[in-house]
Amino acid sequence: MKDSFYEDSVQLSYGLFHRYDVRFLGLKNIDLGINFVAVSRSTADINETTAKLENKKRLHALVMMPSLSLYSHQDMHLDFVFLPAIPTVSDYSVLFFRFGFNLF
Description:
Blueprint: E1 10-21, E2 27-46, E3 53-72, E4 76-83, E5 94-101
Antiparallel strand pairs: 1-2, 2-3, 3-4, 4-5
């Protein structure tokens, strides 16, 4: 896929998780996981005066990201993945989330 700077972004990951059977508040299972990710993407600085991209370069990093998945009795799930701030990668943390459901 393309990254924020319209360059190729490649990720390879491997995840481990542990499933907990829970039976409360409409939940069926909770998965706690850890993902090991190799990332290759571009990065750049934005000039605050001109709003132009500067110092564009390729970045390669290894990252660990925790994850949490909540599964309901109605075959729906909500996934969260946390990408912590990493000095060589970004100055900020990101929380990704995804909602899904089974069609059959």
